[in-house]
Amino acid sequence: MRKVADCREYPSESGCTLTIAGSEEEVLVAAAQHAQAVHGHTDSPELREELRKLLKDEEPGR
Ligand SMILES: [Zn+2]
Fold it and tell me: Distance, CA 11 to ligand 1 centroid (Å)?
């Protein structure tokens, strides 16, 4: 099952609506890059741990 990271559920000032879907590792890598590029975060184990908490199982049939 794929994992989904929905930026709308992550508090941000930019009102970002990006959704990233893929395997857990793919989503973590992409989300960490996105967090750096768009949200000004620094990539770190702590950031990835935060991102991991945001992952949800992709809902089937969508
Ligand atoms: Zn975002």
Answer: 9
